[in-house]
Amino acid sequence: MHGHNWKVETEVLARKLDNIGIAIDFKTVKTATRKLADSLDHRYLNEIEPFDRINPTAENLACWFYQQLGRILNREHVKVSAVTLWETDTACVRYSEEDL
Questions:
Q1: pTM of the model
Q2: Measuring CA to CA, how many Å separate 77 from each of 44, 45, 80?
Q3: Letter string b/e over residues 34-65, b meaning 16 or more CB atoms within 10 A of that residue's CB
Q4: For 26-76, how does the pLDDT look when each residue is reduced to its tens digit (9 = 90+)?
Q5: Cα separation of 43 and 61, whole Å?
């Protein structure tokens, strides 16, 4: 068993801005992302749903963040468009459900 330190980058896509020119407050995105990351911190991932059934690869973690953040942040005019999970400063995976 070994641990990782990673960074999670959340991208949102906005189709409309509010009356002061904001799609979604960065603090809202940061708080939601941090709360999800904290739920995994210092835990054995293979014992946490859904990683008790699927391999906790960087790719699967990025997908999980994408799906969970979408449930929390998506609105009529704003949606999570991608999540990038950085394992090091030069190694990352980006997950999106946009067409390739």
A1: 0.89
A2: 36, 33, 11
A3: eebeeebeeeebeeeeebeeeebebebbbbbb
A4: 999 999 999 999 988 767 677 788 888 888 899 999 999 999 999 999 999
A5: 14
